[in-house]
Amino acid sequence: MEEVVLIEQPQSGHVIKSRPYRLSCKAVNARKIRFKCNNKWLDEARYESVLGTDPGTQLPYMQGSVEITRQEVELGSHLEEFACQCYASGASDSHVVRSDPARIRIAYMRKHFVQTPTSDRVPEGSTVQLHCIAPESDPKAQLTWLKDGVELEKSVDSNVIYGNDGSLIISAARLRDSGNYTCEATNIANRRSTDPATLSVYVNGGWSVWSSWTGACAADCVALRRALESDAGSEVIPRLRRTRTCNNPAPLNGGAYCSGEEEEFRSCNLTCRLDGRWSPWSDWSPCSPTCHRFRTRTCTSPPPINGGRPCAGRELETVPCSEDYCIPSTAPQPRLANDAAVYGGLACVLVLLAIIMALCTALLCKRNRGKKGSVKNIYYAETGAHVRRVLLEQQQKALLADDCTKPPPIGSQFFTLGSTCSPSPMHPSMTLRSAKSAYSGYSANRNAGSRAALITECSSNSSSGGGKRTLIRTSSNYSDDENYATLYDYLDEKAVGCLETSQAVLAAQVDQSGARLQLRKCGASLLIPENALDSDRMIYLAVSDQLADRPQLQPGESALSSVAVLGECEGEPASPARVMLKPLILSFRHCASVFPRDNWSFVLYADEGFGWQRVLTVGEENLNSTMYVHMEKPGRSDGGMGWCHVMLENFARVMLAGKPRRASVTACKRVHLAAYGPSERPRGSSFELRIYCVPETGAAMENVAKQEQHGRLLAESEHFLLNEKGDLCFCVEDVTDGFSIRGSAVVEIPDTHHQWCSQNGLHCSLTVCSDTNRPVEEFLARIVVYQKTNNAERHVLQVRFENSIYDKPPPEEDRTVTADFHLPLEVKDELSRLLDPPTDPGRDWRALARKLHTDRYIQYFATRPGCSPTTLLLDLWEARECGSRRAAHDLLQTLRVMGRPDAVVLLEQYLSHFSYAS
User: Fold this and answer.
1) Separation between Cα atoms, residue 505 and residue 543, nearest integer Å
2) Is 668-808 CATH 2.60.40.2660?
3) What are the protein's UniProt keywords (predicted)?
4) What architecture does CATH give domain 5-106?
């Protein structure tokens, strides 16, 4: 009997939706070929058979094939792998040959890339690496790179290298390498591309060599004296000059201009005897705290030469400020006559201080005794397990108090926005007053299984002179039952009155269900996770933009955010040693520019009740660090790169500061530009145009909006990159015929005055005159804003009074308290149970930290006593994804990439049972 031999076995492969997969089998001396898939024989009517003779052996063979559809694989692979085998037999079925199993899988490619390339600006000659990791796929996707829509071939350009991980490496960037790069993943199932990443290659300018000294030093002494006496200035004194040009190389593609001067002068050695003469007076300084301003001049135009006489007169001139500019806080005191008077005055002061301290001690003791026996100002928790949430909102009518600085709108001038109001009343213990009212309204707002009660508080105008307090009640459509929350907490009159207008406060009664407090306009939020507090607590979130609230920074450091405060209201029961059972996440905006180049070294300052401390430097944390800081990376579609998230374990006030990491590379701040004008048609022939330049911290921009609540926003621009050094210039161009700018149309603010917006920003005022009494609605102009050290960063404000795009939008809800989380507590606990065990670093909670980009100091999550690392990571993820509509779906994709089908099934079950907005 002739032996049946398989000479071609079926191969493993993939089936796609539009094309089935063909299995083929070939055997010598075979008379019958059948196929078996997942232990089931396929219908023989589907087979295609071909008989022939092998040309090499001259033996007869039979070749059979069958097509496998996607539906068969889906139905057969839900329990096990879909595998098929070929069976070949001779004239009788007694001798059967079986092939090896051929495994058939469904080809697919997920939608989202694991890592996508990001835009970058690099200098010429530097090495560039664009990262790209393909989506999860089967079979494995092949990566190709396209530049401006054309595929890059590494064999053509030796400067381009394809990395083993799929990244694109340009060994030495050239100007022609600038363009839009796209990563493309391809397999038999699909083809997907990333969004284009822009690569900009620039060339920084370099100086040429100095030219030779030019000029002559010979001078007629008599003629020189006459010229100086005729106020010709020191320019008539002969001197030598040499120049250089920024063309070695010239700056290209936005590269930095050469730093330094283009020309240099050297004084000549004169034999003439010349008297000293005064230079012109400097500009008047801003008004000082003592309500004076001054100007100076120097004896350098020219200085005395060869025994000449010095200048006669004063080099400093001081004048008092006008009453409209500032009001002196104290009257000048007469100078003490002699030392005896000094000692006598000091003795009197010491005696008075001793008396005041004794009185304060007695009052405090009396107050403490009164608190023990009185119940009027104690907050009583209601019975029941429901959540009560109270929103305390202060209605503020103006940005600055009456005693703050207000410059006169004359000509064009600039000044800082730093407030001179009294210091903030925030006590170092971070507490606010709370009281119980007998006249409480009722309201309930059901949200995610919790009850939240919101209350708006208004304080009476300070000019009314009364001690009146108003409580606005909200209507209710429910019956009076135990599900209502009693609204009786509101701020004490003194507490409301002493809060400065540059502060925003939001308080809420929080229980074990957690809460999310948001001050949207001020750019701050607080996430209180579930079971984070030991009991019901009245917690508040506050933001202050006052300079007096800031810590004393070290030399070279600059403030990058407002002061964010997390505290507990007064009147709460005595707090135990540990109120927080796990960290709370405080989020706030900062103005540091981390894209396209991050040169910041970030420092976190915190005051936990013992004064400001420099608690950590980001990137240098250790086991003693009690806080964790997460800086959002650039490239997020929701603009999250301007946010800082801090995980705290105690009540505190915090502020982010920073300094340049390398002195040779410029660090930038992101500032917001806005131009305001009159909201109504001015009565006269002129009006004022006000231009603001403030840090993008949220609170600073909100202060400008409040100050200009009676003005009209004409133009604005964001993400202007401001360097520490370099004059800031405002240039008004293309002014409509019939209008003119009073004074100069160019305002230059020296870097010594704008101070890198460290005083909460700048305000430049320009006066526009109508030469022909044309209506203000016809005024058009362009305001070009640039910095001398960074000519590539130019923003243009198109000022149009007739444009309505900047009209005030309807007011949005600024202060919100919600209890909605992306995932319920039960799902988070189950995910923690699955991911907490340290099994595989590529598949447990450590992999989740890497996928969420929160693994800079991963030891923090592993060393919190009594806390699950996965739970802490998900709490931080909840804070980062605030407002995201796809947060849970993106987390599901992350778990798929990690290779955790158990966690994927858990999350898919939750998303399938609950309506989740995609």
Assistant:
1) 7
2) yes
3) Developmental protein, Disulfide bond, Glycoprotein, Immunoglobulin domain, Membrane, Receptor, Signal, Transmembrane, Transmembrane helix
4) Sandwich (2.60)
